[in-house]
Amino acid sequence: MNKIITDVSSPEYWEHRYKHRTDDWDLGTPTPVFEALLKSGKLENSGKIVVIGCGRGHDAILFAKQNYLVTAIDFSASAIRETRRLAKKAKIHVETIEANVFELPGKLLHKFDYVLEYVTYCAIDTERRIEFLDNVQRMLKPGGIFIGLFFPIDNRDGGPPFAVDIKEIQSHLSKTFKLIYSEIPKTSVKPRLGKEMLMLWKKK
Fold first, then answer.
1. What domain range is 133 assigned to?
2. Which residues pair with 180 in a beta bridge?
3. Rounded to two decimals, what is the model's pTM?
């Protein structure tokens, strides 16, 4: 009998989800909100970007195609293998790292111009959210940008995905970041329309 794994802080939990194709958060395509963001001119320059909880790598590949130097991180070995496969298929280079997002190697500290987050913050243990945001800060260079598309903001019960409190995010990030842009995107996929917020935070 297969052991039922329920600990969202465990790499085994996410590996099980990917191996058994229960990763229903995966859109199968790049995120439309990020496609629109790249076209908007709100990101001044390309540079080094890390995608935390990259999943199957659709957004990592999207940014790599726009000449960003992309590092993609995920708990799951299966997710990382799929990212590599899809990047190879697209003839795009993406550096991939299988790692616990709470135990990042020192070589990733203060390295990046951008950190990209989508459906990872909402998936982790809610008691570890501050720890997650602190790791984002540690990965960015001074002046670097945290690109967060936060879902779900509709006060749902249970999870994952666990409901996101935007005020909590603002309260913590404002200590070391300046909010430079936010919106509830109109380009969200239909099931998530009105339930997510895009925020750009600049590290002080």
1. 11-203
2. none
3. 0.90
